[in-house]
Design brief:
The protein is of the alpha/beta class and 204 residues long. The protein is built from eight helices and five strands, in the order βαβααβααβααβα. It has helices spanning 13-26, 41-51, 60-84, 95-105, 110-121, 136-145, 159-175, 189-203; strands spanning 2-7, 31-35, 88-92, 128-133, 180-184. Helix 4 (95-105) runs antiparallel to helix 5 (110-121) and helix 4 crosses helix 7 (159-175). The relative contact order is 0.20. The protein binds thymidine-5'-diphosphate.
Length: 204
Amino acid sequence: MFITFEGGEGSGKSTAIERLGERLSSLGKRVLITREPGGTPISEEIRSIILDRKNTGMDPWTEALLYAASRRQHVKEKIEPALKEGTIVISDRYVDSSLAYQGGARGLGIEKVLALNQFALDGVMPDLTIFFDLAPETGLGRIRKNQEREVNRLDLERISFHEKVRESFLVLKEMFPERIKVIDANLSPDKVFEEIWNLVSLLL
Ligand code: TYD
């Protein structure tokens, strides 16, 4: 089983992922929690290039290709082997982030970015994708309060960029209604987790 979490900055997805991992482990399931961009040493190195605040001159397609390259390594080195041995894989972001950020918000086109990503995915698609829906101002406000979190290059985008990201996720939900489920990230962490657990239980 492969579950991915998506959502804007400060939507609370990391906390929810941790809780889900704990709940599944307590039921005796093998769980692997990972993230994108990153998840393997090579992918993490690519991540640092993409998110480096000095790389403001990065071309949008370079950005999309780097995310896809990082993903390819992640799929082959970590995700696919874990799924093959029956481990439940939970990833903090996956291909839908590329579709929403690069395809939608950067304007490269969702279909084109999906086509580019087919090389990286090699057919490894999530069984369930949970999108944390939240107004960008609310999310960014939460990040600013959280002093421990690094502010990366993508965080520095204008609010209108983050609005486009959100709209793009809602478009993706229409494109993949079976796979992508939306959760209102304004709800309390307990309520959010309850909804997640309902969705995951259906898969178990
Ligand atoms: P990160 O600090 O992991 O963000 P968050 O804590 O919000 O998940 O930074 C990842 C950033 O990269 C985030 O702004 C989303 C963006 N991103 C893309 O633009 N495309 C992608 O394919 C992925 C995986 C992430």
